Amino acid sequence: MLQGEGRGLSGFWFFFWGGWLFWGSFFGVFEGGSRGGVCGMGAVFHVGLVYEILPYKCYKQYCFFVVSVAKKEDIRMGVLKLLNRHNIVFGDYKWTEFDDGFLNSNVESVSIVDTELKLKDRQPIDLSKSSLSLHIFHLNEEGPSSENLEEENEDIIAANHWVLPAAEFHGLWESLIYDSEVKSHLLDYVTTTLLFSDKNVDSNLISWNRVVLLHGPPGTGKTSLCKALAQKLTIRLSCRYRYGQLIEINSHSLFSKWFSESGKLVTKMFQKIQELIDDKDALVFVLIDEVESLTAARSAFKAGTEPSDAIRVVNAVLTQIDQIKRYPNVVILTTSNITEKIDMAFVDRADIKQFIGPPSTAAIFRIYLSCLEELMKCQIIYPRQQLLTLRELEMIGFVENNVSRLSLVLKEISRRSEGLSGRVLRKLPFLAHALYIQVSLFYSLSLFYSLYFGLV
């Protein structure tokens, strides 16, 4: 069974359980030639990439899940024929049923995703004029393992460790909705760091540390975005790296009950990370959630409000970051809810300091829309009703009619939900059902709206 994924210069990915997974990407307004070949380990496979000037910049992906032992070349040709037959799409799209018997037997789904990263508005996408590459990889379904450190004959769980791409993170990237181009900027950042490393740019003249700091209020998806980014890049860069490693450090566990030992625990943890980095086939992501726990401002220590052991922790973290930044296959992802308490020396080391705030009304509408589509797909909301996007409502001037009425109600619910975090927004459908639905296995969209008004 094949494992892995191939990519183009800006390629993206595919997943699948128990079989093969393919991804394709489309590109526009690029320059270049074509290339192909086998890259990465065993299953990694690159179909080829051709550049073509298009009337707009586009960046799309499609993925399909394979549950058979059919030859990958046969599947590739089958998917290409599908795209030739259905060559005009509007934004993201997914096929789950096919008019081709071979695809029905071997492919679970074909999806075009991430169109919003490059296309501001929904517009027709001509797949026949888009260049593409196909990728294959296998999801790791084993779940996280723990990294333990020994302290005074006692094992401390210092971190969780995933081998990427992981089934646990499948679909996480697509579920995160932001108003700004946060996701595309983060992808471009890591691509740039790898380019600079490839070209042997002197880091003494042009400084970059491979450190990302996401900050903002709780519940805005900072940690989830870090995990989704690691998953995305592992698949996207699989021609370069056979697999990814994600280490999520448990910051609080690194503070020892023994005086002066905390700094040593930090050093031990990074020594374990160094062992992973030494594997040149692995792309390593170090995730430090609530990084202020390990990098509290040393100015507070001087005032006598913090113990000196905490100073050793900050110094150890900064030293370890300076040591591992020499390696091209490591990226440090950090999050914080209270950036004003982070030591300025760490803040200065972050190449990207991205604020992640609560979603706007438009983003809330998109989040609710994705929730409702899922509930209708699972027939918890029944019968299925057509819902328009904000762009489609705008095109008809927000005029109320039989087609737009339910979508306009959702727009009003979104307005009333301003200030809620993404975490809370995605919990509300569950709460609406749990608190107000007593008997019915399903309910209408109109009833769902009435329940929502009771919550927001």
TrEMBL record:
GO cellular component assignments: chromosome; nucleus
Major site of localization recorded for this protein: nucleus
UniProt subcellular location: Nucleus
Gene3D superfamilies noted in UniProt: P-loop containing nucleotide triphosphate hydrolases
The entry's keywords: ATP-binding, Differentiation, Meiosis, Membrane, Nucleotide-binding, Nucleus, Oogenesis, Spermatogenesis, Transmembrane, Transmembrane helix
GO biological process: meiotic recombination checkpoint signaling; oogenesis; reciprocal meiotic recombination; spermatogenesis
Domain AAA+ ATPase residue range list: 208-360
TM spans (from-to): 12-29, 430-452
Function: Plays a key role in chromosome recombination and chromosome structure development during meiosis. Required at early steps in meiotic recombination that leads to non-crossovers pathways. Also needed for efficient completion of homologous synapsis by influencing crossover distribution along the chromosomes affecting both crossovers and non-crossovers pathways.
PANTHER family, per the entry: PACHYTENE CHECKPOINT PROTEIN 2, PACHYTENE CHECKPOINT PROTEIN 2 HOMOLOG
Protein name: Pachytene checkpoint protein 2 homolog
Lineage: Eukaryota, Metazoa, Chordata, Craniata, Vertebrata
